[in-house]
């Protein structure tokens, strides 16, 4: 169970977000990018200063996600749904770590999703992972109490809020299927999207992630870890744990496990471990710094 409002649970080390953007800062009463009436706005390395300064007047909760982990995006949607019931007392901002390395470095995120609060341009650590809606509501209510204590009581106008982050129909169908646990339907929706556009990068990434979820469906993490500890050179046992780690957002743990397996094995077993690791690299994306480091480590392990 995710624990609420535990300082340091979502990020590691000091959090300094003040130097992320060189763009002019907005005034405390200024509108958030995308319009002050939006319950949910996206944050980037470039516009973060503007959004951060807005929290002097209106508190915000930031959800850190990865577009390559659809379950993190589904969770973001649930947080937004809870926020919509709070009469505009807070705004939800989201950041995709795959495309915003500055925020990723500043937060020192270890896994996604991560949820943090923003009050008076300061970070309030909340929790890592997902939580049920009722627990999210409780945590956000406690966060708003803290905001009131600090005199941050502004509101956004939710009545005229425009829909944000609308997805193509088949992508939305896939996300909805993931949310209800129907992975076969999610895979079918992504497959149909790829028939329409074979170069749809989001559909390719989503389809690969659903395949990962299907491979790990029903797996018991504790049992998988125990089996991997007992059989350190068993490719099937090690790749299952690596898949579970990646699905949970522990990207570097997954890569490290398989790189170590490549070092210890030879022949067909080494080939299988290397190929599986390469598939995980492709899933995370070559632009990710962790993938770049992982490929370098893999070359070292091979030679």
UniProtKB/TrEMBL annotation:
It comes from the Bacteria. SUPFAM superfamilies: Thioredoxin-like (SSF52833), TPR-like (SSF48452). InterPro entries: Thioredoxin-like_sf, TPR-like_helical_dom_sf. This is Tetratricopeptide repeat protein. It comes from Nostocoides veronense.
């Amino acid at each position: 169970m995710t624990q609420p409002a535990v300082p340091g649970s979502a990020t590691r080390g000091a959090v300094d977000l003040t130097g992320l953007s060189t763009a002019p800062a907005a005034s405390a009463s200024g509108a958030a990018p995308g319009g002050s009436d939006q319950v949910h706005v996206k944050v980037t390395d470039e516009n973060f200063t503007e959004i951060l300064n807005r929290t002097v007047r209106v508190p915000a909760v930031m959800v850190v996600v990865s577009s390559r982990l659809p379950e993190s995006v589904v969770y973001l949607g649930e947080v937004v749904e809870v926020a919509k019931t709070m009469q505009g007392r807070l705004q939800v901002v989201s950041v995709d770590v795959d495309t915003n390395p500055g925020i990723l470095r500043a937060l020192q995120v270890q896994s996604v999703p991560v949820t943090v609060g923003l009050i008076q341009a300061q970070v309030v650590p909340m929790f890592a992972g997902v939580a049920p809606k009722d627990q999210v509501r409780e945590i956000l209510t406690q966060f708003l109490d803290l905001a009131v204590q600090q005199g941050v009581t502004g509101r956004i106008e939710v009545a005229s809020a425009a829909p944000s982050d609308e997805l193509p129909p088949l992508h939305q169908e896939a996300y909805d299927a993931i949310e209800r646990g129907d992975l076969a339907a999610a895979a079918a929706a992504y497959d149909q999207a790829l028939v329409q556009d074979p170069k749809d990068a989001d559909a390719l990434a989503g389809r690969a992630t659903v395949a990962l979820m299907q491979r790990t469906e029903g797996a018991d993490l504790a049992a998988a870890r125990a089996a991997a500890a007992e059989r350190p050179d068993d490719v099937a046992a090690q790749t299952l744990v690596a898949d579970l780690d990646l699905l949970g957002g522990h990207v570097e743990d997954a890569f490290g496990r398989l790189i170590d397996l490549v070092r210890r094995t030879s022949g067909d077993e080494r080939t299988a471990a290397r190929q599986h690791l390469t598939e995980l690299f492709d899933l995370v994306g070559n632009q990710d710094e962790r993938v770049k480091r992982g490929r370098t480590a893999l070359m070292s392990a091979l030679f």
